[in-house]
Amino acid sequence: MHENLDHPDLAKQHGILAYSSNYTLYGDMSNRVSEVLRDFCPDIEVYSIDESFLRVERVAHLYGGTLALGVQMRNRIKQWTGLPVCAGFGSSKTRAKLANHLAKKNACFAGVCDLEAMPVPDQMVWMKQVPVGEVWGIGRRISERLAAMNIHTVSHLVETDPKALRKQFGVVVERTANELRGLSCLALEEVAPAKQQII
User: Which of the residues are catalytic?
Assistant: First the structure.
C-alpha cells in the first residue's frame, strides 16, 4: 500500500512527524561522549557514532568496580551532554553487547548491566529471554536458519555444539557463540578501520 504523505493533513492523521537530520551535531555529540569515556578509560574503540567498546579491567577498581564505573560514566555523560546512555560489561565484545541490550530493555538494571557479576544460572535465565536475532552479528536470515534448528534464544545458541554451528554457518556464527560463552575472539581495535561506505 502506498500513501502520499506529503499532504500535511494525512501526516497529521497518522501521527507522523518529520525531523531533519543534523549529522554535524550527531558527530559532535559522539565526539563529546567519546572524550568523557576516555577520561574514565583510555583503551577505547569507537565502534560507531553511538557505540564504543572500552577495556576496563585495568581501571574498574579505581571506581569501585564495573557497576559503579558504569553508573559514573552514565551520570557524567548525562550531565555533560544531556544524552541518556546504557553500559554493558562482559568478558567479550558480544557479551558486552548482550549486557548493554539487557541494560536498555530491563529497568531492573537501571541502565548498567555486568554479565560477569552475575552467577552463571542467572546469566542463563536472562539469555533464555533474549531472542537469538538480538545477538550482535545474527541477522534476519541467519536467525531464520537458526530457528529451523530449534535455536530461538541466546541460551539455545550458547548451548549448541560449536562444531555444528561451524558446519552450518561457518566460522562467524561459531565465533559469536564462543564470544557469548565468554571466549573473547574479537580484539579491541584502538584505531577503527576506515569506513568502506557511508549510507
Answer: 51
